[in-house]
């Protein structure tokens, strides 16, 4: 990846969504604001959720679009939203929603980096305890390498 996929402007330390659909919308809105996807990406995320849950465990969901939504992706990027009150994601508590958009299969490398971070319980707790966007970014900035 040549450009950073995560910037501080793409992180929300306190999301406002209370449902899974609202959380997917919040994740997509950040990606749209970043110029990485078009508004057509949200319906593709919803379609993906109908076929398979994007709940990954350890309080994390990674909603992303279907293969048919590739035209809605303009650049690879992440959005990161933390929720103090968990979102019910198919019966699982979610405190973190990471929206991913990847061109030319870059999403696989991004997913791998996020999976490594969230496989470590201590790092997950550090993300839950982070004081704000700056601390969250410090803990996630390896995804840009």
TrEMBL record:
The keyword 4Fe-4S does not apply. It comes from the Bacteria. It holds the Pfam family PTS_EIIA_2. The keyword Transport applies. Keywords: Kinase, Phosphoprotein, Phosphotransferase system, Sugar transport, Transferase, Transport. Residues 4-143 form the PTS EIIA type-2 domain. The phosphoenolpyruvate-dependent sugar phosphotransferase system (sugar PTS), a major carbohydrate active transport system, catalyzes the phosphorylation of incoming sugar substrates concomitantly with their translocation across the cell membrane. The enzyme II CmtAB PTS system is involved in D-mannitol transport. This is Mannitol-specific phosphotransferase enzyme IIA component. It comes from Frondihabitans peucedani.
